[in-house]
Amino acid sequence: MIKIIRAEWLKLRTTAVPWVLGGIAMVINGLLILVIFLNHGSSGGGPFGGGDNGNGPTVVFGPNYPHTVQQLRNLVGSGFAGYLLALLLGVLIVTTEFRHKTVTTAFLITPVRPVMVGGKLLMAAIAGAGLAIIMFLTSMIGGGLTLVGVGGSYSSLLNQVPAVLPGMVLVFILFGMLGVGIGSVLTNQVAAIVVTLGWFIILEGILVSLVHGAARWVPTGAAEAAANINRSRSGVSSLLFNWWQGSLLIVAYGLIFAALGSYILTQRDIT
Amino acid sequence: MPSAIEVRSLTKHFGNVHAVEDLSFSVETGRVTGFLGPNGSGKTTTLRMLLGLVKITSGTATFGGRRYQELDKPDHHVGAVLEATSFHPTRRAEDHLKMVAIGSGIPLSRVDATLELVGLADVARRRVGKFSLGMRQRLQLATALLGDPEILILDEPANGLDPQGIQWLRTFIRYQASVGRSVLVSSHLLSEMEETVDDVVIVSEGRLVLQTTLAELASRAGTSSGMRVRSPEIDRLTAVLQTIPVGFRPLSPDTVAIDGATPEWLGPVLAQNQIVVYELVHERGSLEDVFLQLTQGFAAGLPGTGEGDGAAAGQAPPTPGLTPMPGGGA
Predict the structure, then answer these.
(1) End-to-end CA distance of chain B, in Å?
(2) DSSP-derived secondary structure letter, A176
(3) Cβ contacts (< 8 Å) between A15 and chain B: which residues?
(4) Residue B54 and residue A100: Cβ atoms within 8 Å?
(5) For A268, phi and psi rounded to 5 degrees?
(6) Nearest CB to B86: which of A6, A105, A110?
(7) Contact criterion met (CB < 8 Å) for B91 and A270
(8) Shortest Cα distance, chain A CAs vs residue B61, angstroms
(9) How many contacts (CB atoms, under 8 Å) link A and B?
(10) Any residues with CB less than 8 A from the CB of B314 and at least 6 apart, and which?
(11) Do residues A135 and A25 lie in contact, with contact meaning Cβ atoms separated by under 8 Å?
(12) Residues near A263 by Cβ (< 8 Å), separated by ≥ 6?
């Protein structure tokens, strides 16, 4: 399995995919950090606490930069939404092989197809963790420097790392693997990307607004649950599972897709 | 010596399409076997079933008794060249080979060795997207050779190659056989392969037409000659020919083709009957003609053109092509 993962890593780093996604991730994170500083007093909405209690923006009296536990956690985890990029990375790890027909070579090297899917799951997990670390470092460097620059305390930011980082890494890993599962079911790259983004950007929101109880069951809800370790949140968080239930739910989604994908790939003729 | 590849009653149905039907043949160790048939005759499907890429409907396709998926380190035993497009365009040639080597547990030193062998050492750092078709084919060959396999499977490797490339490929394949490798190479053109292969497996519409040696096929080609005669007295000529056990067919109102005839046989016949002749052409069959007749005849549902030598003089069948010498040349 180690040689499959080493080969997968070579495959991944010799395409533009991880570098482009990594770049996009850092740019988006930079913008989010900016938004946090511009909005710092108006609302603490975000996966790591605060939240809208239904009465409109909360007016926070205090210094002109993030300083409450919730605000600092939001800054540490400002790249959290990048788990969708980890998901996309997982999708691309599989579908790129089909798009460029390199899957023929891949199956000649590893003829037992579920083994290859397994290798890609692990690769996506590693890449997901890597992406989480990149996002985290962007927050700690970009966000941290800005915070210090406007008079905040870097140690107060560092103090929130243990509460945020493990959950964030976990979610990125699990979503990377979920992406591999989705990609092995939907091997057409365009279809896989459209369906995945369509679900997360449009369909999921519609579903949750129609059926509130679905919030805890959809992947985004599971991701927020999995990441919100030690959180104190009101409102929507009461609808979510706790962190380990959320994690298990993502794992379950990932396994269902990966198992289905392995089965489909095993049946499939590579012509 | 055991066969390197054994295909037994191999069948593949894609829905209602019977791509391969009850196909059996073997590839002998240390020989080059040409896998020949027109486009769409099931060659690629057969090779992909051998390699575990296409699911087998029924039958077996094995290397020394084991399926590709059951081989320990399969690409140390079997190297395959399939289509020329299966590279990631932004990946460098060297990285493609490294990826295969790492995934298969092959020492990285083999990467440079195989690049050198196929003549791509100079462009090792170039991205494959910038490669010509010929260079891609060479890179495919390098990929297949990485694990130093004893069996090579090449699917239409001459496609897209220029004449120099084809010459290079022939030398390459002969060299592989000379160092003891078994090669199964598919082509839709026998002429492309006739200087290269030892044995031929001819398929048409997914079925085996003939498995034989090239030498045997060549001797058939020798017997598939005939004479073409243009004459103002075509009716008299036909009447004479009907009294002799020989196959013939009109080509135009004044021309007739006589299967298996030689000038030495036909000259006296024409002289005896005092038939005026405007044109006499001795047509010798080429291997390609035999191949075309075998596959077309098969496709048209003609019976057993591939069976036996048909040495029975005097019973020349009306089918064109593989008819014997009439009357043994008497």
Answers:
(1) 43
(2) H
(3) 88, 90-91
(4) no
(5) -80, 140
(6) A105
(7) no
(8) 15
(9) 84
(10) B245, B327
(11) yes
(12) none
| Amino acid present at B300 | A
Smallest CA–CA distance from B79 into chain A, residue: A108
Length, in residues, of chain A: 271
Q: Cβ A271–B53 below 8 Å, yes or no?
A: yes
ipTM: 0.82
**With an 8 Å Cβ cutoff, is A2 touching chain B?**
no
Residue B152, classed as helix, strand or coil, is: strand
Distance from CA of B157 to the nearest CA of A (A): 16
**Chain A, 76-115: which have a CB under 8 Å from a chain B CB?**
96, 100-112
Query: Which DSSP letter does residue A59 get?
Result: P
Helix/strand/coil for B279: strand
Torsion (CA) B152, B155, B157, B160 in degrees, nearest 10? -160
Q: In tens digits, what is the pLDDT along chain A, a chain of 271 residues?
A: 888 899 999 999 988 888 998 999 899 999 988 888 887 655 445 556 554 444 445 555 567 778 788 888 888 888 888 899 999 999 999 999 999 889 999 999 999 999 999 999 999 999 999 999 999 999 999 999 988 888 888 888 898 888 889 889 999 999 999 999 999 999 999 999 999 999 988 998 899 888 888 888 888 888 888 887 444 444 455 677 888 888 899 888 888 988 898 899 888 898 8
Q: Sorting pLDDT into bands at 50, 70 and 90, what band is B55? A: very high
Q: Following DSSP, what letter does each residue of A224-241 receive, concatenated?
A: HHHH-TT--B-GGGGGS-
Give the tokens for residue B86. Answer: 């299966």
For residue B296, count other CB atoms closer than 10 A to its CB: 15
Cα distance from B147 to chain A (closest Cα, Å)?
10
Q: What are phi and psi of B36, to 5 degrees?
A: -115, 145
Give me the mean pLDDT over the B169-182 stretch.
92
> Are B260 and B320 contacting, i.e. CB atoms less than 8 angstroms apart?
no
Q: What angle do CA A93, A5, B125 make, to 5 degrees?
A: 75
Contacts of B92 (CB under 8 A, 6+ apart): A14, B124, B125, B126, B127, B128
Give dist(CA A115, CA A181) in Å, integer: 13
Query: What are the helix (H) ranges across chain B?
Result: 43-50, 93-104, 109-117, 133-145, 163-178, 190-193, 214-223, 234-242, 263-272, 287-299
The predicted model scores a pTM of: 0.79
Buried b / exposed e over B56-65, threshold 16 CB at 10 Å, is beebebbbee
User: 């999921």: which residue's tokens?
Assistant: A204
Hey, CA dihedral for A187, A191, A194, A200, is it positive or negative? negative
Q: B237 in the Ramachandran plot: left (φ > 0), alpha (ψ -120 to 50) or beta? A: alpha
Q: What is the token pair recorded at B196?
A: 């290269």
B9 touching A, CB under 8 A?
Answer: no
Element spanning B20, H or E: strand B17-28
